[in-house]
């Protein structure tokens, strides 16, 4: 450690008058206000709140080509995890007031029907004192994922960055993963998905799992499309109550989706007696819970 | 039907806002921010906004503000964005009717941060800067290093090759989604500020931590990002390494591959052998 | 008193004539097949609606994501297992009385195992992607094991049906008049130049013995793997180490009962009283008692161990079965479909063909509902509460399309068995002749 002692580095990258962060219209879902008069390469798309917004063509489709080519490109890219990352979520149950903004933003981002949940806020009852609390329950992105183990066709898979995704171009709809998941985190497209007509020309984005497909399983993807853009997942940034922290365990940093405060993951877990759901099942979840307590 | 009513309500209330006669005084309209709007400021504004404003104004750019008359409006809307910085600042500061005055709650820098946050939704916005006549201006340069003798982050601030005293320095460790604050400190007579860094803070694959420092004095600003090697290389083992039952087919556990294919080939080999013997029946047609 | 003539007292010629009479294309048979086909087409219309609209036409939902299609699949696989018990285990033990029953058992095995494969496709959300299982198959998934083992079992059962049939095919090929020429030519080709030579007998007997040995692990495998579709998950109620033997023992119960029913139908339909005698019903009845006892034993283990402890995760499910919302069906199935039938079968008059077939029918129906009780209630007791979904998600009720599609699978089984019974002698001619010869010599 002492080798690089006192080696002062001059870093003079100053940016005065930096144009204020137009933080990327990288994905369809990103909020954007189009005051622009330049209409040449802009198209209208629906964002996750079903608002018609204008975005640049290049921000919608990562490559040029037919729908099938784009789908395969996205599939191939989406199977690899972001290098040297290991994503974790921390849910502070003390702060959850059942606002359900996470659920609605998730459902609109992933084109889900109202009864389909990638994240579901459950009302839980504590046996010992009868107190109720609200528990948001996304996919736990287990490090020993029982759903992935049983998949017969490698449709659902685990990436190197810890995410458990599903390829609904591959899924055969056997629903073994739904049976295998002890957290009831998966949902099935029993009927034609919501607004299927509207999205039928969109290439399939495996990292967002849209457009949804009839007869395939859908699940929480930790908003892998957002993470690629260094953005927090939809549910995390939609929360008005500061419930969610999200980040990279390799950095040991997690950022609160509401306050954007960044804290040490290890410290947060230790100081708040964090736990994981149904530890005894050995699934090794990537989602931690901070116990409910009166604040 | 319910939605239609809401939509009509939104449209009419939106017009109400646009037509609303609430105008900041001329003098107030001309106020300029002494601070340069940047991502950090917008970030700070976002936090303040979510704490004090979001309950009525909703999520910025989502047009999901509360239904009130007059409508609170979305800060990303044209009605807001067409106002001057000074006008927005004034209205947050002074309030009117249902809109509370935040004069006593937030400092001017914090209110400007909210304005910066609103402006971050407007691509076409260009900040008009303040004329800083008569104020001492600095041309800050920062040098950042890690001192292993005292285990502290050292930030040296100079301006035109001279140390600057009493500069406020804020240091952070950059993370993927946000920055971990190491704290704020003022430079000493030698223009140096020190920061504690957790000893167990993991670095990246090269052992680097990305430090981010901001310095500020008398409306002069500078910020810089620097990667310093302060830890051993932290090469994480991907969770997908190795052969697991949940791995893709090509990484199936060896014992399973052997057992599975062994059984399949064994049984089907026997089946084909039996079928093969049946074709010898013809040979023994006669004794 | 009726004289108890059996095939052992009959001449080889009589046996041949009696047993060949079923191989024909009679009018009643054609009518029966037409009726079945119409029924099948009507039911398959509902499958078409399922393909068009999605699996949402069934009563399944995100919590009960496996419904009666899967319980039906388990039932079919279970029933098919009897082929192994009768022609292989009893055959290897040189139990003589099974000779006229073996082919019936093998027909049941082929028909049920084959349709089980189709039933599992019916349950798929994307049957158009069936080939993905072969292209992208993961050998870690019990589904892949199931695909392999079901295919293997169908193949072995077909061979076990076919090889003992070779000498009979040669006889059928010679049968002029009643059968179309083309059909006889096919028989001739399939008989692989059979000429009753000792060397040929040696080959097929060797083949049969090898198959009989081979089919035991595969048959145990098919149903054990089927049980693993459940036991390999973390769901409390399925997460049981005795699920394999529990399923296998249950399989023999429904299999034996199905054989008794089919024996009764064939005996009545084709007047085979001399071949499928009261003695056979008596012995099959006893066999059914034996396998039922084993199954009762496994049931006791499977229920009482978790019920004694009532661990939180399992309590909901166990109490649902014993005293809760599934208790009515549970007790009817256990007492009415298993315990009373085997108690009745302990009485000799109840092992006469008529009563035995009736009791077997009740056992089979009970067995079907037993599979329902294994598959569905567990899913209604997940670890985390069922919330924020429509009320219908907290229970399961099969819809009409689902029921008719299930009926279609039964029609297919009946069609296959009918066809097999019409194409080939129901009872092995040469094996009976061989046995009577030995009988007369001694």
Number of helices of chain B: 8
Number of strands of chain B: 8
Mean pLDDT of chain B: 86
Helix content of chain B: 25-40%
Strand content of chain A: 15-25%
Number of domains of chain B: 2
Biggest sheet strand order of chain A reads 13-12-11-4-14
**Which second-level CATH architecture of chain A applies?**
2-Layer Sandwich
CATH topology of chain A: Alpha-Beta Plaits
Anisotropy-based shape of chain B? elongated
Secondary structure class of chain B reads alpha+beta
Radius of gyration of chain A: 20 Å
Helicity of chain A, as a percent range = 10-25%
Determine Rg of chain B (CA atoms, Å). 33 Å
* Total count of strands of chain A: 14
Order of helices and strands of chain A: EEEHHEHEEHEEHEEHHEEEHE
What distance separates the N and C termini of chain B?
A: 91 Å
The second-level CATH architecture of the largest domain in chain B is Orthogonal Bundle
Write the CATH fold name of the largest domain in chain B: Cytochrome Bc1 Complex, Chain D, domain 2
What is the CATH C level class of the largest domain in chain B, in words? Mainly Alpha
Structure in words:
The complex is a heterotrimer of chains A (295), B (287) and C (442). With 295 residues, chain A is of the alpha+beta class. Chain A has a single domain, classed as Alpha-Beta Plaits, CATH 3.30.70. Chain A has eight helices and 14 strands. By secondary structure, chain B is of the alpha+beta class. Chain B has two domains: 2-119, Cytochrome c-like domain (Cytochrome Bc1 Complex, Chain D, domain 2, Orthogonal Bundle), CATH 1.10.760.10; 140-229, Immunoglobulin-like, CATH 2.60.40. Chain B is 32% helix and 20% strand. Chain B has helices at residues 2-19, 26-29, 39-52, 54-57, 78-81, 85-94, 108-119, 254-278, and strands at 140-147, 152-159, 162-163, 168-174, 179-186, 192-196, 208-217, 220-229. In chain B, the strands form two sheets. In chain B, strands 1, 2, 3 and 6 form a four-stranded antiparallel β-sheet that branches. In chain B, helix 6 packs across helix 7. Chain C has helices at 12-20, 27-53, 68-80, 82-92, 99-122, 132-135, 142-162, 166-173, 181-190, 198-231, 243-270, 278-309, 312-322, 327-345, 353-379, 400-423, 429-441. Chains A and B meet through strand 1, helix 4, strand 11, strand 12 and strand 13 of A and helix 3, strand 1, strand 5 and strand 8 of B.
